[in-house]
Specification:
Number of strands: 13
Strand order of the largest sheet: 6-7-4-9-2-13
Helix content: under 10%
């Protein structure tokens, strides 16, 4: 989870990943008592919003979230890749305290080794840093 007033971050993978999924959990804009302007998160790569997320607007590599004080956004983004690293910019002028909880996953390719009906994932090391 990234927490604070400046939420730019970068994740780096030990090897390029194709078909990378970012699972957004309870993303929001500024935490204030007022209804603030919408906030934007700009990724350094293009993506697809996999499931409809009410209130989220996508424009190229940017998502805009309505900043109603009661809204949290949970959804799934897909980066076709290959992705060696992924960065997100969250402008300081978006204001307020904010959090982004997330996990990453990859759907195994059909050529993955199978054992007992389960795909064995390749070993992958990721490093997440707050910029």
């Amino acid at each position: 989870m990234i927490d604070g007033y400046q939420a730019d971050w970068t994740v780096t993978f030990s090897q390029p990943v194709s078909g990378l999924y970012l699972h957004m959990r309870d993303w929001r804009g500024g935490l204030t008592v007022n209804d603030d302007p919408p906030v934007q998160y700009t990724f350094d790569q293009l993506f697809t919003v996999v499931n409809p997320i009410p209130g989220l607007v996508q424009s190229a590599n940017t998502i805009t979230l309505d900043d109603d004080t009661n809204l949290f956004y949970t959804g799934l983004l897909r980066f076709d890749g290959p992705v060696s690293s992924l960065s997100v910019l969250f402008p300081e002028e978006s204001g307020g305290n904010h959090q982004q909880a997330m996990t990453f996953s990859q759907i195994p390719e059909p050529t993955s080794m199978w054992c007992g009906g389960r795909a064995l994932p390749s070993r992958q090391t990721i490093m997440l840093r707050d910029r």
